[in-house]
Specification:
The structure is a single chain. The chain has six helices and eight strands. With 175 residues, the chain is of the alpha+beta class.
Length: 175
């Protein structure tokens, strides 16, 4: 049986510690134990598309910081995807606001968002299992993961989506 890398989709021999294509660790996916909860079983079974990823709010890399923050506030969202030529080049999140801008907002407000975004963010596809999203969020310390088709962003999931899913699984009939 093959072990599919959640980061690059490469097929690996069952039992390898790292992906032979991209070098990402795969030890979490070796010798899976049966989960003893509806949440764990669901995350192994269900694809990200059941989370109904939200339509991504996007902007160009040259958009001023203050404009991006206004969009985030108006839309009550925690991240904006940065797009160039219809391809995902970065993500700017509430964590970037705190860690990269902070109290310097007044002096940085006119600078392009590309100066503060996280470039080349980790992504997933709607057909990946939810457990891959949980793993990516845990390992990378992410709260938001762009969902893509090729290089084109088609959605975003957040830790809130995972928590909502877990709550639904706990409350599901038969659990």
């Amino acid at each position: 049986m093959a072990l599919i890398c959640p980061d690059c989709g490469a097929s690996n021999i069952d039992g390898v510690d790292t992906c032979e294509s991209c070098g990402q660790p795969l030890t979490m996916f070796n010798k899976p134990q049966r989960p003893h909860s509806p949440v764990g079983e669901g995350m192994l079974r269900d694809q990200i598309k059941v989370l109904q990823p939200k339509h991504p709010i996007t902007t160009a890399p040259n958009t001023p910081v203050e404009d991006v923050l206004q969009v985030m506030l108006e839309n009550k969202i925690g991240s904006v995807l940065i797009i160039e030529d219809e391809k995902l080049v970065g993500i700017f999140s509430e964590r970037d606001v705190v860690n990269r801008i902070g109290i310097e907002f007044d002096s940085l407000r006119k600078q392009p968002i590309s100066n503060f975004m996280t470039p080349s963010p980790g992504t997933l596809e709607a057909g990946n299992k939810i457990i891959f999203a949980v793993h990516k969020m845990a390992i990378g310390g992410y709260r938001h993961v762009p969902i893509v088709e090729g290089d084109r962003p088609v959605g975003v999931i957040s830790i809130r989506d995972i928590l909502r899913y877990a709550e639904e699984q706990i409350g599901a009939p038969g659990s």
